[in-house]
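Task card 7
Instruction: Convert sequence to structure tokens.
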Amino acid sequence: MDYRVNEKIKFGLITLAACLGVSITAALGSWQLSRAAQKAALQADIKAQSAKPPITAKSLRALPDPSQPCAGGLPSGAFGLKKQPSILKTVR
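Output:
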């Protein structure tokens, strides 16, 4: 009797390990296919960017200087923000 119980436990563990191995392999295959789709989309984006004309120095000089603040600052309500007093001015 002892021998049969050990055989049943052994068979169950081997079956469990096989099912686990098959499910891990299937999950990795699915991940690999989704990753391939991501890489194909990225490659298409790179190809589309390379088809655009290069940026010239003249077009760069025409852009506003990002290190300088806007003349009027952010307009009231920009990005859902309302003008509020500075915390540094209110805490004294």
